Backbone:
Protein backbone atom coordinates (compact mmCIF):
# COMPACT_ATOMS: atom_id res chain seq x y z
CA UNK A 1 0.00 0.00 0.00
CA UNK A 2 1.43 3.30 -1.05
CA UNK A 3 1.09 5.97 1.58
CA UNK A 4 1.03 9.07 -0.47
CA UNK A 5 -1.85 11.14 0.48
CA UNK A 6 -0.25 14.12 -1.19
CA UNK A 7 -0.94 13.03 -4.71
CA UNK A 8 -4.61 13.92 -4.26
CA UNK A 9 -6.21 17.30 -4.80
CA UNK A 10 -9.73 18.33 -3.91
CA UNK A 11 -11.33 20.40 -6.66
CA UNK A 12 -14.44 22.45 -5.92
CA UNK A 13 -16.23 23.71 -9.00
CA UNK A 14 -18.43 26.81 -8.96
CA UNK A 15 -18.99 26.85 -5.22
CA UNK A 16 -21.66 29.41 -4.37
CA UNK A 17 -21.35 29.75 -0.60
CA UNK A 18 -17.91 30.77 0.68
CA UNK A 19 -18.73 29.13 4.03
CA UNK A 20 -18.73 25.79 2.23
CA UNK A 21 -15.21 26.40 0.95
CA UNK A 22 -14.01 27.04 4.50
CA UNK A 23 -15.83 24.01 5.87
CA UNK A 24 -14.38 21.86 3.07
CA UNK A 25 -10.88 23.08 3.96
CA UNK A 26 -11.45 22.09 7.56
CA UNK A 27 -12.78 18.68 6.54
CA UNK A 28 -9.73 18.14 4.33
CA UNK A 29 -7.23 19.10 7.00
CA UNK A 30 -8.71 16.76 9.61
CA UNK A 31 -7.97 13.98 7.16
CA UNK A 32 -4.49 15.21 6.18
CA UNK A 33 -5.46 16.52 2.74
CA UNK A 34 -3.91 19.86 1.88
CA UNK A 35 -4.38 20.60 -1.82
CA UNK A 36 -7.47 22.67 -2.52
CA UNK A 37 -8.22 23.76 -6.09
CA UNK A 38 -11.10 26.13 -6.75
CA UNK A 39 -12.73 26.55 -10.14
CA UNK A 40 -14.63 29.83 -10.55
CA UNK A 41 -15.75 30.15 -6.92
CA UNK A 42 -18.45 32.79 -6.56
CA UNK A 43 -16.61 34.55 -3.71
CA UNK A 44 -13.00 33.86 -2.77
CA UNK A 45 -11.14 34.72 -0.65
CA UNK A 46 -13.72 35.69 1.94
CA UNK A 47 -13.98 36.25 5.66
CA UNK A 48 -16.76 33.69 5.86
CA UNK A 49 -14.59 30.96 4.36
CA UNK A 50 -11.81 31.78 6.81
CA UNK A 51 -14.22 31.74 9.75
CA UNK A 52 -15.63 28.35 8.81
CA UNK A 53 -12.16 26.91 8.21
CA UNK A 54 -11.39 27.27 11.96
CA UNK A 55 -7.67 26.70 11.94
CA UNK A 56 -7.46 25.24 8.46
CA UNK A 57 -6.88 28.67 6.95
CA UNK A 58 -3.46 27.49 5.74
CA UNK A 59 -5.34 25.28 3.28
CA UNK A 60 -7.28 28.32 2.09
CA UNK A 61 -4.13 30.43 1.81
CA UNK A 62 -2.53 27.79 -0.41
CA UNK A 63 -5.67 27.22 -2.51
CA UNK A 64 -5.29 27.69 -6.26
CA UNK A 65 -8.04 29.29 -8.32
CA UNK A 66 -8.72 28.33 -11.96
CA UNK A 67 -11.04 29.64 -14.66
CA UNK A 68 -12.09 26.14 -15.76
CA UNK A 69 -12.07 22.55 -14.55
CA UNK A 70 -9.95 21.53 -17.50
CA UNK A 71 -7.11 23.75 -16.34
CA UNK A 72 -7.41 22.62 -12.73
CA UNK A 73 -6.89 18.99 -13.66
CA UNK A 74 -4.58 19.23 -16.65
CA UNK A 75 -1.68 17.48 -14.93
CA UNK A 76 -3.73 14.66 -13.34
CA UNK A 77 -3.65 11.03 -14.38
CA UNK A 78 -6.91 10.17 -12.60
CA UNK A 79 -9.94 12.44 -12.32
CA UNK A 80 -12.86 11.34 -10.18
CA UNK A 81 -16.10 13.28 -10.40
CA UNK A 82 -18.67 13.18 -7.64
CA UNK A 83 -22.35 12.94 -8.35
CA UNK A 84 -25.46 12.80 -6.22
CA UNK A 85 -27.58 11.30 -8.94
CA UNK A 86 -27.44 8.51 -11.40
CA UNK A 87 -26.83 9.96 -14.83
CA UNK A 88 -28.67 8.93 -17.90
CA UNK A 89 -25.44 8.06 -19.69
CA UNK A 90 -23.94 5.56 -17.30
CA UNK A 91 -20.44 6.33 -16.08
CA UNK A 92 -18.25 3.82 -14.27
CA UNK A 93 -19.44 4.33 -10.69
CA UNK A 94 -17.35 3.86 -7.58
CA UNK A 95 -18.14 4.14 -3.88
CA UNK A 96 -15.99 6.30 -1.56
CA UNK A 97 -14.24 3.14 -0.35
CA UNK A 98 -13.50 1.92 -3.85
CA UNK A 99 -12.32 5.40 -4.73
CA UNK A 100 -9.86 5.39 -1.82
CA UNK A 101 -8.59 2.00 -2.88
CA UNK A 102 -8.09 3.16 -6.45
CA UNK A 103 -6.24 6.27 -5.33
CA UNK A 104 -3.93 4.23 -3.15
CA UNK A 105 -2.72 2.27 -6.17
CA UNK A 106 0.79 2.95 -7.38
CA UNK A 107 -0.29 3.48 -10.89
CA UNK A 108 -1.59 7.00 -10.30
CA UNK A 109 0.68 9.89 -9.50
CA UNK A 110 -1.75 12.79 -9.45
CA UNK A 111 -5.41 12.42 -8.66
CA UNK A 112 -8.26 14.96 -8.63
CA UNK A 113 -11.54 14.49 -6.82
CA UNK A 114 -14.02 16.94 -8.24
CA UNK A 115 -17.09 18.33 -6.44
CA UNK A 116 -19.72 20.30 -8.33
CA UNK A 117 -21.95 23.23 -7.49
CA UNK A 118 -24.16 23.05 -4.40
CA UNK A 119 -27.38 23.07 -6.40
CA UNK A 120 -26.58 21.63 -9.80
CA UNK A 121 -23.42 19.56 -9.41
CA UNK A 122 -21.11 19.13 -12.39
CA UNK A 123 -22.20 19.85 -15.93
CA UNK A 124 -22.11 17.07 -18.49
CA UNK A 125 -19.08 18.72 -20.11
CA UNK A 126 -17.26 18.70 -16.78
CA UNK A 127 -18.30 15.11 -16.11
CA UNK A 128 -16.77 14.11 -19.39
CA UNK A 129 -13.37 15.18 -18.10
CA UNK A 130 -13.64 12.53 -15.39
CA UNK A 131 -12.37 8.96 -15.53
CA UNK A 132 -14.69 7.72 -12.83
CA UNK A 133 -17.79 8.89 -11.10
CA UNK A 134 -18.02 8.59 -7.36
CA UNK A 135 -21.34 8.39 -5.61
CA UNK A 136 -21.76 8.47 -1.84
CA UNK A 137 -24.48 6.06 -0.73
CA UNK A 138 -27.34 8.01 0.84
CA UNK A 139 -30.94 7.82 1.89
CA UNK A 140 -33.04 7.35 -1.25
CA UNK A 141 -35.53 9.89 0.02
CA UNK A 142 -33.01 12.55 1.07
CA UNK A 143 -29.62 12.61 -0.59
CA UNK A 144 -28.88 16.27 0.12
CA UNK A 145 -25.33 15.97 1.41
CA UNK A 146 -23.70 19.25 2.30
CA UNK A 147 -20.64 19.93 0.13
CA UNK A 148 -18.22 19.85 3.07
CA UNK A 149 -19.89 16.68 4.37
CA UNK A 150 -19.25 14.96 1.05
CA UNK A 151 -15.63 16.13 1.12
CA UNK A 152 -15.39 14.86 4.71
CA UNK A 153 -16.61 11.35 3.90
CA UNK A 154 -14.36 10.91 0.90
CA UNK A 155 -11.27 12.31 2.64
CA UNK A 156 -12.05 10.06 5.60
CA UNK A 157 -12.07 6.97 3.40
CA UNK A 158 -8.80 8.03 1.78
CA UNK A 159 -7.27 8.74 5.16
CA UNK A 160 -8.15 5.28 6.45
CA UNK A 161 -6.30 3.71 3.55
CA UNK A 162 -3.40 6.04 2.96
CA UNK A 163 -3.15 8.44 5.82
CA UNK A 164 -2.37 6.62 9.01
CA UNK A 165 1.39 6.85 8.58
CA UNK A 166 1.74 7.83 12.18
CA UNK A 167 0.73 4.29 13.14
CA UNK A 168 -2.40 5.54 14.86
CA UNK A 169 -5.52 3.55 14.46
CA UNK A 170 -8.10 3.50 17.18
CA UNK A 171 -6.29 3.43 20.47
CA UNK A 172 -6.16 0.15 22.27
CA UNK A 173 -6.00 0.05 25.99
CA UNK A 174 -2.39 -0.63 26.91
CA UNK A 175 -3.04 -1.66 30.50
CA UNK A 176 -1.73 -5.14 31.27
CA UNK A 177 -4.42 -7.81 31.27
CA UNK A 178 -4.52 -10.50 33.92
CA UNK A 179 -3.11 -13.78 32.76
CA UNK A 180 -4.91 -17.07 33.18
CA UNK A 181 -3.05 -18.31 36.26
CA UNK A 182 -3.83 -15.15 38.15
CA UNK A 183 -7.47 -15.24 37.02
CA UNK A 184 -7.68 -18.74 38.48
CA UNK A 185 -6.49 -17.40 41.85
CA UNK A 186 -9.09 -14.66 41.61
CA UNK A 187 -11.88 -17.18 41.00
CA UNK A 188 -10.72 -19.28 43.96
CA UNK A 189 -10.66 -16.22 46.17
CA UNK A 190 -14.12 -15.19 44.93
CA UNK A 191 -15.57 -18.64 45.55
CA UNK A 192 -14.08 -18.80 49.05
CA UNK A 193 -15.54 -15.39 49.88
CA UNK A 194 -18.97 -16.33 48.53
CA UNK A 195 -18.90 -19.43 50.74
CA UNK A 196 -17.82 -17.36 53.74
CA UNK A 197 -20.79 -15.03 53.37
CA UNK A 198 -23.04 -18.06 52.80
CA UNK A 199 -24.15 -16.90 49.40
CA UNK A 200 -22.61 -19.90 47.77
CA UNK A 201 -22.94 -23.52 48.88
CA UNK A 202 -20.01 -25.55 47.53
CA UNK A 203 -22.00 -28.77 47.99
CA UNK A 204 -24.84 -27.41 45.91
CA UNK A 205 -23.06 -25.04 43.58
CA UNK A 206 -25.68 -24.60 40.88
CA UNK A 207 -24.32 -22.41 38.12
CA UNK A 208 -22.99 -19.59 40.24
CA UNK A 209 -19.26 -19.93 39.61
CA UNK A 210 -19.85 -20.69 35.93
CA UNK A 211 -21.73 -17.46 35.62
CA UNK A 212 -19.04 -15.53 37.46
CA UNK A 213 -16.36 -16.99 35.20
CA UNK A 214 -18.31 -16.15 32.13
CA UNK A 215 -18.81 -12.60 33.33
CA UNK A 216 -15.21 -11.86 34.29
CA UNK A 217 -13.64 -13.75 31.41
CA UNK A 218 -15.69 -11.71 29.01
CA UNK A 219 -14.46 -8.56 30.69
CA UNK A 220 -10.76 -9.32 30.50
CA UNK A 221 -9.67 -7.82 33.79
CA UNK A 222 -6.69 -5.54 33.92
CA UNK A 223 -4.07 -6.12 36.60
CA UNK A 224 -5.11 -3.23 38.81
CA UNK A 225 -8.81 -4.05 38.49
CA UNK A 226 -8.12 -7.59 39.65
CA UNK A 227 -6.12 -6.22 42.58
CA UNK A 228 -9.01 -3.95 43.58
CA UNK A 229 -11.54 -6.78 43.37
CA UNK A 230 -9.33 -9.03 45.50
CA UNK A 231 -8.90 -6.19 47.97
CA UNK A 232 -12.68 -5.98 48.26
CA UNK A 233 -12.98 -9.74 48.78
CA UNK A 234 -10.33 -9.66 51.53
CA UNK A 235 -12.06 -6.75 53.25
CA UNK A 236 -15.40 -8.61 53.21
CA UNK A 237 -13.74 -11.67 54.73
CA UNK A 238 -12.07 -9.58 57.41
CA UNK A 239 -15.34 -7.81 58.30
CA UNK A 240 -17.46 -10.90 58.80
CA UNK A 241 -14.94 -12.61 61.03
CA UNK B 1 -26.90 -9.04 9.38
CA UNK B 2 -29.91 -7.35 10.85
CA UNK B 3 -30.83 -4.13 9.13
CA UNK B 4 -32.37 -2.06 11.83
CA UNK B 5 -31.13 1.42 11.67
CA UNK B 6 -33.99 2.66 13.82
CA UNK B 7 -32.60 1.40 17.07
CA UNK B 8 -29.96 4.13 17.08
CA UNK B 9 -30.28 7.63 18.48
CA UNK B 10 -27.83 10.49 18.04
CA UNK B 11 -27.33 12.39 21.28
CA UNK B 12 -25.76 15.85 21.20
CA UNK B 13 -24.65 17.12 24.59
CA UNK B 14 -24.35 20.82 25.39
CA UNK B 15 -24.16 21.97 21.78
CA UNK B 16 -23.25 25.67 21.72
CA UNK B 17 -23.93 26.64 18.11
CA UNK B 18 -27.48 26.02 16.90
CA UNK B 19 -26.17 25.83 13.32
CA UNK B 20 -24.35 22.67 14.30
CA UNK B 21 -27.59 21.09 15.48
CA UNK B 22 -29.18 21.81 12.11
CA UNK B 23 -26.16 20.53 10.20
CA UNK B 24 -26.12 17.39 12.33
CA UNK B 25 -29.81 16.79 11.54
CA UNK B 26 -29.06 17.10 7.84
CA UNK B 27 -26.10 14.73 8.14
CA UNK B 28 -28.30 12.22 9.97
CA UNK B 29 -31.10 12.34 7.44
CA UNK B 30 -28.81 11.77 4.45
CA UNK B 31 -27.86 8.51 6.16
CA UNK B 32 -31.42 7.54 7.21
CA UNK B 33 -31.01 8.30 10.88
CA UNK B 34 -33.98 10.08 12.41
CA UNK B 35 -33.70 10.08 16.21
CA UNK B 36 -32.08 13.23 17.53
CA UNK B 37 -31.74 13.71 21.30
CA UNK B 38 -30.43 17.01 22.65
CA UNK B 39 -29.03 17.43 26.14
CA UNK B 40 -29.05 21.03 27.41
CA UNK B 41 -28.50 22.67 24.00
CA UNK B 42 -27.57 26.32 24.42
CA UNK B 43 -30.22 27.49 21.94
CA UNK B 44 -33.02 25.29 20.64
CA UNK B 45 -35.18 25.53 18.67
CA UNK B 46 -33.65 28.25 16.54
CA UNK B 47 -33.97 29.70 13.07
CA UNK B 48 -30.29 29.03 12.45
CA UNK B 49 -30.66 25.32 13.15
CA UNK B 50 -33.63 25.12 10.81
CA UNK B 51 -31.75 27.00 8.08
CA UNK B 52 -28.76 24.68 8.29
CA UNK B 53 -30.95 21.58 8.35
CA UNK B 54 -32.04 22.35 4.76
CA UNK B 55 -34.94 19.96 4.41
CA UNK B 56 -34.12 17.86 7.45
CA UNK B 57 -36.29 20.05 9.65
CA UNK B 58 -38.53 17.06 10.35
CA UNK B 59 -35.62 15.63 12.35
CA UNK B 60 -35.42 18.87 14.33
CA UNK B 61 -39.18 18.94 14.89
CA UNK B 62 -39.05 15.43 16.36
CA UNK B 63 -35.92 16.08 18.46
CA UNK B 64 -36.22 15.42 22.17
CA UNK B 65 -34.55 17.70 24.72
CA UNK B 66 -33.22 16.43 28.08
CA UNK B 67 -31.74 18.09 31.16
CA UNK B 68 -28.96 15.48 31.49
CA UNK B 69 -27.23 12.79 29.48
CA UNK B 70 -28.33 10.23 32.03
CA UNK B 71 -31.96 10.86 31.22
CA UNK B 72 -31.38 10.85 27.48
CA UNK B 73 -29.91 7.34 27.55
CA UNK B 74 -31.76 5.69 30.43
CA UNK B 75 -33.49 3.12 28.22
CA UNK B 76 -30.42 2.23 26.11
CA UNK B 77 -28.52 -1.04 26.30
CA UNK B 78 -25.47 0.29 24.48
CA UNK B 79 -24.05 3.78 24.92
CA UNK B 80 -21.16 4.87 22.73
CA UNK B 81 -19.33 8.08 23.59
CA UNK B 82 -17.26 9.94 21.03
CA UNK B 83 -13.92 11.42 21.94
CA UNK B 84 -11.29 13.39 20.08
CA UNK B 85 -8.56 12.63 22.54
CA UNK B 86 -7.01 9.74 24.33
CA UNK B 87 -8.07 9.75 27.95
CA UNK B 88 -5.78 9.02 30.82
CA UNK B 89 -7.89 6.15 32.08
CA UNK B 90 -8.06 4.07 28.95
CA UNK B 91 -11.54 3.12 27.75
CA UNK B 92 -12.22 0.41 25.23
CA UNK B 93 -11.82 2.30 21.95
CA UNK B 94 -13.60 1.56 18.69
CA UNK B 95 -13.36 3.05 15.23
CA UNK B 96 -16.46 4.26 13.35
CA UNK B 97 -16.43 1.05 11.33
CA UNK B 98 -16.18 -1.17 14.39
CA UNK B 99 -18.92 0.90 15.99
CA UNK B 100 -21.23 0.33 13.03
CA UNK B 101 -20.52 -3.38 13.17
CA UNK B 102 -21.28 -3.52 16.89
CA UNK B 103 -24.53 -1.62 16.45
CA UNK B 104 -25.63 -3.97 13.70
CA UNK B 105 -25.49 -6.91 16.09
CA UNK B 106 -28.80 -8.38 17.21
CA UNK B 107 -27.86 -8.23 20.84
CA UNK B 108 -28.57 -4.51 21.18
CA UNK B 109 -32.07 -3.12 21.00
CA UNK B 110 -31.47 0.54 21.75
CA UNK B 111 -28.20 2.32 21.07
CA UNK B 112 -27.05 5.87 21.78
CA UNK B 113 -24.13 7.58 20.09
CA UNK B 114 -23.15 10.55 22.18
CA UNK B 115 -21.36 13.67 20.94
CA UNK B 116 -19.95 16.23 23.37
CA UNK B 117 -19.61 19.99 23.35
CA UNK B 118 -17.86 21.67 20.44
CA UNK B 119 -14.96 22.86 22.58
CA UNK B 120 -14.66 20.50 25.48
CA UNK B 121 -16.34 17.26 24.45
CA UNK B 122 -17.89 15.04 27.11
CA UNK B 123 -17.08 15.38 30.80
CA UNK B 124 -15.58 12.45 32.64
CA UNK B 125 -18.89 11.94 34.43
CA UNK B 126 -20.67 11.72 31.07
CA UNK B 127 -18.00 9.42 29.70
CA UNK B 128 -18.61 7.08 32.60
CA UNK B 129 -22.14 6.51 31.36
CA UNK B 130 -20.73 5.04 28.15
CA UNK B 131 -19.96 1.41 27.37
CA UNK B 132 -17.56 2.18 24.55
CA UNK B 133 -15.61 5.13 23.31
CA UNK B 134 -15.50 5.87 19.62
CA UNK B 135 -12.66 7.81 18.10
CA UNK B 136 -12.61 8.96 14.49
CA UNK B 137 -9.12 8.61 13.06
CA UNK B 138 -7.80 12.05 12.15
CA UNK B 139 -4.69 14.00 11.33
CA UNK B 140 -2.46 14.03 14.43
CA UNK B 141 -1.73 17.67 13.92
CA UNK B 142 -5.30 18.79 13.34
CA UNK B 143 -8.11 16.72 14.74
CA UNK B 144 -10.66 19.52 14.83
CA UNK B 145 -13.62 17.76 13.25
CA UNK B 146 -16.76 19.84 13.05
CA UNK B 147 -19.59 18.32 15.11
CA UNK B 148 -21.82 17.68 12.10
CA UNK B 149 -18.85 16.22 10.21
CA UNK B 150 -18.29 13.71 13.00
CA UNK B 151 -22.00 12.83 12.97
CA UNK B 152 -21.79 12.48 9.18
CA UNK B 153 -18.90 10.03 9.23
CA UNK B 154 -20.41 7.82 11.89
CA UNK B 155 -23.89 7.79 10.35
CA UNK B 156 -22.28 7.01 6.99
CA UNK B 157 -20.52 3.95 8.41
CA UNK B 158 -23.75 2.79 10.03
CA UNK B 159 -25.65 3.37 6.82
CA UNK B 160 -23.21 1.25 4.83
CA UNK B 161 -23.80 -1.68 7.17
CA UNK B 162 -27.44 -1.37 8.07
CA UNK B 163 -28.66 0.46 5.03
CA UNK B 164 -31.97 1.33 3.61
CA UNK B 165 -34.19 -1.08 5.29
CA UNK B 166 -35.78 1.38 7.68
CA UNK B 167 -39.00 -0.58 7.91
CA UNK B 168 -37.59 -3.08 10.36
CA UNK B 169 -38.25 -2.44 13.99
CA UNK B 170 -35.88 -3.00 16.88
CA UNK B 171 -34.91 -6.61 17.40
CA UNK B 172 -35.13 -8.36 20.74
CA UNK B 173 -31.77 -9.33 22.13
CA UNK B 174 -31.21 -12.93 23.16
CA UNK B 175 -29.85 -12.31 26.64
CA UNK B 176 -31.32 -9.09 27.96
CA UNK B 177 -28.66 -6.54 28.83
CA UNK B 178 -29.07 -4.25 31.77
CA UNK B 179 -30.22 -0.80 30.76
CA UNK B 180 -28.59 2.37 32.03
CA UNK B 181 -31.07 3.23 34.75
CA UNK B 182 -30.69 -0.21 36.33
CA UNK B 183 -26.90 -0.04 36.03
CA UNK B 184 -27.04 3.20 37.96
CA UNK B 185 -28.91 1.43 40.77
CA UNK B 186 -26.27 -1.31 40.72
CA UNK B 187 -23.47 1.25 41.08
CA UNK B 188 -25.25 2.93 43.97
CA UNK B 189 -25.72 -0.41 45.69
CA UNK B 190 -22.07 -1.32 45.08
CA UNK B 191 -20.83 1.99 46.45
CA UNK B 192 -23.02 1.68 49.55
CA UNK B 193 -21.73 -1.83 50.18
CA UNK B 194 -18.09 -0.76 49.72
CA UNK B 195 -18.67 2.01 52.26
CA UNK B 196 -20.35 -0.44 54.67
CA UNK B 197 -17.33 -2.73 54.62
CA UNK B 198 -15.05 0.32 54.97
CA UNK B 199 -13.23 -0.41 51.75
CA UNK B 200 -14.45 2.82 50.24
CA UNK B 201 -14.37 6.24 51.89
CA UNK B 202 -16.95 8.49 50.24
CA UNK B 203 -15.12 11.55 51.58
CA UNK B 204 -11.88 10.43 49.98
CA UNK B 205 -13.08 8.44 47.01
CA UNK B 206 -9.93 8.34 44.89
CA UNK B 207 -10.71 6.59 41.62
CA UNK B 208 -12.43 3.54 43.04
CA UNK B 209 -15.94 4.06 41.71
CA UNK B 210 -14.60 5.36 38.42
CA UNK B 211 -12.68 2.14 37.98
CA UNK B 212 -15.67 0.03 38.96
CA UNK B 213 -17.85 1.84 36.44
CA UNK B 214 -15.32 1.41 33.72
CA UNK B 215 -15.01 -2.29 34.48
CA UNK B 216 -18.71 -3.10 34.57
CA UNK B 217 -19.68 -0.79 31.72
CA UNK B 218 -17.13 -2.54 29.55
CA UNK B 219 -18.60 -5.89 30.50
CA UNK B 220 -22.20 -5.06 29.68
CA UNK B 221 -23.95 -7.03 32.35
CA UNK B 222 -26.84 -9.25 31.51
CA UNK B 223 -29.97 -8.99 33.64
CA UNK B 224 -29.37 -12.18 35.58
CA UNK B 225 -25.70 -11.35 36.18
CA UNK B 226 -26.69 -8.02 37.64
CA UNK B 227 -29.24 -9.75 39.86
CA UNK B 228 -26.59 -12.17 41.13
CA UNK B 229 -24.13 -9.37 41.86
CA UNK B 230 -26.77 -7.42 43.73
CA UNK B 231 -27.68 -10.56 45.65
CA UNK B 232 -24.03 -10.86 46.69
CA UNK B 233 -23.91 -7.22 47.79
CA UNK B 234 -27.09 -7.63 49.86
CA UNK B 235 -25.72 -10.77 51.48
CA UNK B 236 -22.47 -8.99 52.42
CA UNK B 237 -24.46 -6.12 53.95
CA UNK B 238 -26.64 -8.53 55.91
CA UNK B 239 -23.61 -10.47 57.22
CA UNK B 240 -21.68 -7.51 58.55
CA UNK B 241 -24.67 -6.09 60.44
Residues:
Amino acid sequence: MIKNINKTRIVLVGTTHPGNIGAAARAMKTMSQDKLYLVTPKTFPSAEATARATGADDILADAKVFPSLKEAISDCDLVIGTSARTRSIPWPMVSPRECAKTISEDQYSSVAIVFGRENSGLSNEEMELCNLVLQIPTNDKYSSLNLAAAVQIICYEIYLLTGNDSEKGPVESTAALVKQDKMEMFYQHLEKCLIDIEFHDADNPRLLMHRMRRLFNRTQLEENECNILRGILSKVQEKIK
Observations:
- The radius of gyration of chain B is 19 Å.
- Chain B has two domains: 5-162, 180-240.
